[in-house]
Structure formats: C-alpha cells, structure tokens
Amino acid sequence: MSCGGSSFFYIEGGEEGDFYSIREIIMEKNTIYQRFFMSNQIYVNWGGNKVCLKWVPYKEINKRELITSVHSYCFAEGKVLLVQVKERGFNIPGGHIELGENPEEALLREVYEEGYVTGDVKYIGAIEVNHRENENFLQNGPYPMIGYQLFYRMDIEKVFPFLRENETLSRIWVEPEEVPYVMNDHELSLYILKEALKMKPS
User: Fold this and answer.
1) DSSP E strand stretches across 66-145
2) Consecutive sets of 10 residues in the chain, 202 residues long: mean pLDDT of each?
3) Which of 46, 81, 82, 177 is least enclosed, having the fewest CB within 10 Å?
4) Which residues make beta-bridge pairs with 95?
5) Which SS3 state, helix, strand or coil, does residue 67 take?
6) CB under 8 Å to 7, separation ≥6 — which residues?
7) φ/ψ of residue 38, rounded to 5
C-alpha cells in the first residue's frame, strides 16, 4: 500500500495541527505511539490534499466500483515480505484491480508480479478513503468520494526467483516487530499488521 512521498497524520482528539511522521512516533513510543493506537482514523497529506483514512476490520465491500486497490501482508516462516517499489521505498505488495478481475484474483496477480510468491489468502478488512475534506477532489475523476482499499493476509506456499520484470526492485523478509522501521507508509499499516498477526496460519 503506497500513498506516495512522506505521509503525515493527525491523531483524532489531539491539538489542531498535530502532525507526526512514522519515525517521530517510533522515537516517542511512550507518548505519541500510545496515543496513536487509541484511534483507527487518521488524516494524511496526499499530494497536498487532506484525506481521511479509517481502518475497518473485516468490513465486507460488495460494490466493486468502491474498491480502489488490494494489498496483502505476506508471511513465510514468521517473517513479512516487503517489496521495494521504484521511487516509493519498501511496502507490502498490492495494486489496482484490472478489468474482469475480482479482488482476490487481482491480489494474487499483484503479489506474484511484485513479490514472486504465491499462497493462501484470507481477508482482514479495509481502509475507508474519504475525500469529503479534500478541496481538490474531482467529482468525475477516477476515484469515488468514499472508496476502500482491501487488505489480506497471505501464507506463502511457494517462493519463485525474483526476476524484476515489473516495478519492484527487490524483496526482503522482515521480522514483524521491525516493519515500522522499514516500511514506507502511513500509520494505519501497523493496525493492519497487528490484525494480520492475530490470524492463524493456513
């Protein structure tokens, strides 16, 4: 899952204008980090636009037109697969749904194209992407006013040679507790990782 560039967020219930980077949160574990985990909603700055993100575990999204992308935490021998996307740093595999695909088919394709792995997947939940406070939102643009990014857990069954045929440059295997120090994404990604770790391996 990638927002592009550096992500900052507002912690609900904090002072107006309280924005922190993920690195600042890690450095201030005893204060900010604890406050963050009290809320599943954040505001991010995407290309200069204010967008509200809300994590909703196990929420079923039945309207295909509301699903903007699919993503997965992929596990093998207790470690998490991260892939390095060109100009976007390390993240979990994922991407957009192509014509004729359902979400799970798109996920399996994206995970293979980016990480060269296959496995069994289970649905975790969704991030609601709300543009109501985005003053530059295009009403007739490619994305809905309120859309959803779907998230899954994959238990990897087969690892293939990494061929760099698509947009990823490398892959790495990371201990779950090290993910916040490596992955380049907004802070709800840690909520989702926590949910994925609760699931029993297939």
Assistant:
1) 67-76, 79-85, 89-91, 94-95, 117-130
2) 37 37 44 50 91 95 95 97 92 96 98 98 97 92 94 98 95 97 91 93 74
3) 177
4) 70
5) strand
6) 21, 22, 44, 45, 185, 186, 187
7) -85, -10
Residue 100 CA to residue 53 CA, distance in Å, equals 27
Q: Distance (Å, rounded) from C-alpha 36 to C-alpha 187?
A: 8
**Lookup: tokens for 15:** 């002072």
User: Tell me, what amino acid is at 72?
Assistant: S
Residue 65 phi/psi, 5° resolution?
A: -70, -15
Continuous segment of H or E residues that includes residue 153: strand 146-159
Residue 178 in tokens? 């090290």
In the three-class reduction of DSSP (H, G, I as helix; E, B as strand; rest coil), residue 44 is classed as: strand
Bridge partners (DSSP) of residue 147 are 129
Q: Which residues contact 20 (CB under 8 A, 6 or more apart)?
A: 8, 9, 11, 32
